[in-house]
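hey so i finaly got around to running the thing on Recombination-associated protein RdgC from Dyella tabacisoli. pasting the sequence first so u can double check i didnt mess up the copy paste, my clipboard has been acting weird all day
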Amino acid sequence: MFFRNLTLFRFSPAVADDLNRLDEALAEHRLRPCGPLEMGTKGFVPPVGRGEEAALTHAVKACTLVTVGSEDKLLPAAVINDELYRKVQKIADEEGRKVGGRERKRIKEDLLTELLPRAFVRTSRMSAYVDKKHGWLVLDTSSRKSAENALTQIREALGSFPAVPLAPEEGPRVLMTDWLANNNLPAGLTFGDECELKDPATATGAIARCRRQDLDSEEVKEHLRNGKQVFQLGLIFDERMSFVLGEDLILRKLKFLDVVMDELGDSQQDAAAEMDASFALLTLELERLLGKLEEWFGLPRPADS
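ok and heres what it spat out for the 3d tokens, dont ask me to read them lol
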């Protein structure tokens, strides 16, 4: 269950205290099946196990794992429009009249009522956890919109959850450009093999994307000398995990290296034990990394109001 991407929010110690009722709050917002005439539903599903009796949270020390789920009907607009056209054309051919806007709207609503119960249902899941000790909300997505939607679900369950986006004191783009241009990496970091460089002067400025390349090469340095800045940078932390860090401070392509995976082993006897061990290892490793991000970019934890 290792996360592949990290979108991050922060919350205060007082908010952390309120999270002690998370399990109880989520119980009233469990994901239910999509009804025949519903386009979709959202809610929470068990991180471990299935069924109504399975818990909606899984805690290891100060970290609590939740899973936000959704069911959405797949009913493409093109399908509806094709059916609508056929029905309108049939009326025109058989009755010799044009269909007005109000009648067309009613026909479309009738089509939705007819087609929705037969539409396929797409399910999705997103894992997230709260670190109450250090004030982090960590979501396994690289999409800011998806992260905000999941955060909204948590807020609705709790009534209030004032987690806020990261507000770095050090500009990520400027700092990462300095790292790459001057080989000025903080201790514990080494370069990966990819980056994205852009000319920030204009919205349509030149873009250079490097993959599987030595980032200390003269070619990369030339792009930097010509005024491009780092918007994404591949990094390796303590030889234990690799990722691509964006100027939005979203971590993409997160991968735990062999030295970490070897520590997990394969001695777990069941799914619950395996989840417990994986989540404990995940949160322990990310605790160290997030602490360093806080240090490098100046990411203060919100204070109690």
